[in-house]
Write a structure and sequence with these properties.
Elements: H1 9-29, H2 33-40, H3 44-71, H4 74-92, H5 98-130, H6 135-158, H7 163-181, H8 202-233, H9 237-240, H10 242-265, H11 267-287, H12 291-305, H13 308-318, H14 324-353, H15 355-365, H16 367-377
Helix pairs in contact: 1-4, 1-5, 1-6, 1-7, 3-4, 3-5, 3-14, 4-5, 4-7, 5-14, 6-7, 6-10, 6-13, 8-10, 8-13, 8-14, 8-15, 10-11, 10-12, 11-12, 11-15, 11-16, 13-14, 14-15
Pfam family, one: MFS_1
InterPro entries: MFS (IPR011701), MFS_dom (IPR020846), MFS_trans_sf (IPR036259), MFS_Transporter (IPR051788)
GO molecular function: transmembrane transporter activity
Length: 379
C-alpha cells in the first residue's frame, strides 16, 4: 500500500469532504422519490422495482471502481462518480418514463457506488498513514451530509421550490465543492497496479457477510420502523418517521465519537459493545410501549450500528491476502446487498411470523458481530 505523502490540514479536510458530499448526494434522492412516483404514476410494485435499479447500479459499479482506483487513482474515480451523480440527479427530478427513470437511477447508483469505493480506499490509506483510527469520523461526515441535504431539500420543497430547483441547489454545492477540492485528492490507489489478481479470501468474505447484516439492520430501520410503530403503537405515520430521524442522529454522533472510542478500547470492544447495543435497542423498540422508551431503543440501534462498517473497512485494509482496494469493493458490494435485499426479506418473514417477531430476528442477527469480533478484528 502506498503511503500518503505528509498530508496538510487542507488535504485531510479534502479527504473528509468526499464523505460529506457522498452523503449529500444520497440524501438528495430520498425527497425526490414521491415526486418520481407521482410523475411516472407507479404502483408499489413498480416503485420497488425502480428502487432496485439504484442498488443494482451501485453493486455492478463497485468492482470496476475498485480496479480503477488501483490503475487510475482515487481522484479519477471520485471525479467520474461525482460527474455521474451531478448529471443524473436533475434528470431524476424531471423524467416521467419508468424506463428512463430506471436507467437514470442505475447510473446514479453507479456514480454513488464508485465514489463510495474511492473514498473508503482513500480513507483507509490516510488512516494507515496517520497510524490512528480515522474511518469512523469519515463516515460520520457521510451521515451528516445525508441529514443536511435531506433537510435542505425538504425546506426548499416546503417553501414552494420545484423538485428540479431544489435538487439543482444540492448539485451545485456537491459539484462545486468536488471540483474545488479534487486537486487535493490522492492520484493513486492503495495497491500496486502490477499486482496479480486475487480472489477474495475467507476473511474478506466473512467481513462482507457481517457488512451485509449491518446494512440489513440499517435498511430494516429505514423501511420498516415507521410501519411498525403505526401498526403496533398506532402512531400517526407523520410522526412515526421520527424513529428514523432519531436513529440517524445517534448514528452520526456514534461515528464522530467512534475513532476516540476505538483508540481507547480497541476494535474488538467497539464491535462487541455495538452489537449488544443494537440487540438491546431492538428489544426496547419492539417490545416496550411508552414512546420515550421505544424511541430510546431506536437511538441505541443507531449508536450501536454506527461504527460497524467503518471498523470493517479498516479490518480488510489490514489484511494482505488480497489487494486492499478490491477488498473494500467486495465488502461494500456485499453490504449493499443487505440494504437492497434486506427490507424485502424482512417483509417475507413478517408475512410468515408477524412484523414484531421479524424485527426481533433482525436484532438477533447482530449476535454474529458480537461472536466474531475477536476473530475478525485480529490482525
Amino acid at each position: 500500500m502506498q503511503a500518503v505523502n505528509a498530508p496538510t490540514l487542507v488535504h485531510l479536510w479534502s479527504y473528509r469532504l468526499t464523505f460529506l458530499l457522498s452523503g449529500m448526494s444520497l440524501g438528495a434522492w430520498a425527497p425526490l422519490v414521491p415526486f418520481a412516483r407521482e410523475r411516472a404514476e407507479l404502483d408499489e410494485a413498480q416503485l420497488g422495482l425502480l428502487l432496485l435499479c439504484f442498488g443494482l447500479g451501485s453493486m455492478l459499479a463497485m468492482p470496476l471502481a475498485g480496479a480503477l482506483t488501483t490503475h487510475k487513482g482515487c481522484r479519477f474515480v471520485s471525479l467520474i462518480g461525482g460527474a455521474l451523480i451531478c448529471s443524473m440527479l436533475p434528470l431524476l427530478a424531471t423524467l416521467s418514463s419508468f424506463t428512463a427513470l430506471a436507467i437514470t437511477l442505475a447510473l446514479f447508483g453507479a456514480g454513488l457506488g464508485s465514489i463510495d469505493v474511492a473514498m473508503n480506499v482513500q480513507g483507509l490509506m490516510v488512516e494507515r498513514d496517520h497510524r490512528r483510527p480515522l474511518m469512523s469520523g469519515f463516515h460520520g461526515l457521510f451521515s451528516l451530509g445525508g441529514i443536511a441535504s435531506a433537510l435542505l431539500m425538504s425546506v426548499l420543497l416546503w417553501g414552494g421550490a420545484s423538485p428540479l430547483f431544489a435538487v439543482s441547489v444540492v448539485v451545485a454545492i456537491v459539484g462545486g465543492l468536488l471540483l474545488w477540492h479534487a486537486r487535493h485528492l490522492l492520484p493513486y490507489g492503495a495497491d500496486d497496479p502490477a499486482a496479480p489478481f486475487a480472489w477474495p479470501s475467507a476473511k474478506v468474505l466473512a467481513v462482507g457477510v457481517l457488512c451485509f447484516i449491518a446494512l440489513l439492520v440499517e435498511g430494516a430501520v429505514l423501511d420498516w420502523s415507521a410501519v411498525f410503530l403505526n401498526r403496533a403503537h398506532q402512531i400517526d405515520l407523520s410522526v412515526a418517521g421520527s424513529a428514523y430521524a432519531v436513529f440517524s442522529l445517534t448514528m452520526a454522533a456514534g461515528r464522530f465519537s467512534g475513532d476516540a472510542l476505538r483508540k481507547r478500547f480497541g476494535a474488538v470492544s467497539l464491535l462487541i459493545g455495538g452489537g449488544l447495543l443494537v440487540m438491546v435497542g431492538f428489544a426496547m423498540a419492539v417490545l416496550l410501549q411508552p414512546w420515550p422508551l421505544f424511541l430510546l431503543g431506536f437511538a441505541l440501534i443507531g449508536l450501536g450500528l454506527a461504527n460497524a462498517f467503518p471498523v470493517y473497512c479498516s479490518v480488510v485494509g489490514a489484511q494482505t491476502a488480497m489487494p486492499a482496494g478490491l477488498a473494500i469493493a467486495v465488502i461494500t458490494g456485499i453490504g449493499y446487498c443487505g440494504i437492497l435485499l434486506g427490507p424485502a426479506l424482512i417483509g417475507f418473514v413478517a408475512h410468515l411470523i408477524g412484523l414484531r417477531d421479524a424485527l426481533l430476528c433482525v436484532g438477533v442477527l447482530m449476535l454474529a458481530q458480537v461472536l466474531s469480533a475477536r476473530r475478525v478484528a485480529r490482525p
